[in-house]
Amino acid sequence: MRQHPLLARAPADHGPRDESASVPGAHRSEKGAAVVSASSRGSSLARTLASRILPSRSDYAELRSSWRVDLTAGVTVAIVALPLALAFGISSGVSAAAGLVTAVVAGIVAAIFGGSNVQVSGPTGAMAVILAPVVAAHGAEAVPLLALMAGVMLVAMGLSGLGRAVSLIPWTVVEGFTLGIATIIFLQQVPMALGTTATVGLNPVLAAGEAFGNADWSVAGITLAIVAVTWALILLLPKLHPAIPASLVAVVVATVATALLALPVPTIGELPTALPAPSLPAFDVAQLGVLAMPAFSIALLAAIESLLSARVASRMAPTGPYSPDRELSGQGLASIASGLFGGMPATGAIARTAVNVRSGARTRVSAILHGVLLLVVIYAGSALVAHVPLAALAGVLMATSSRMVSPETVKAIFRASRADVLIFSITALITIAVDLIVAIEIGLVVAAIVALKHVADQAGVRREEIQGDRIPGDERIALVRIDGAMFFGVADRLQRELDQYRGIEVVIIRLSRLSGLDATGANTLVEVIETFENRGVTVLVKGLKEEHRRVADAVGVYRALRDPRHVFDSIEDAVAHARSHIERGPWQGKKGKKGKATS
Question: N or C, which end of the chain has less CB nearby within 10 Å?
Answer without folding.
Answer: N
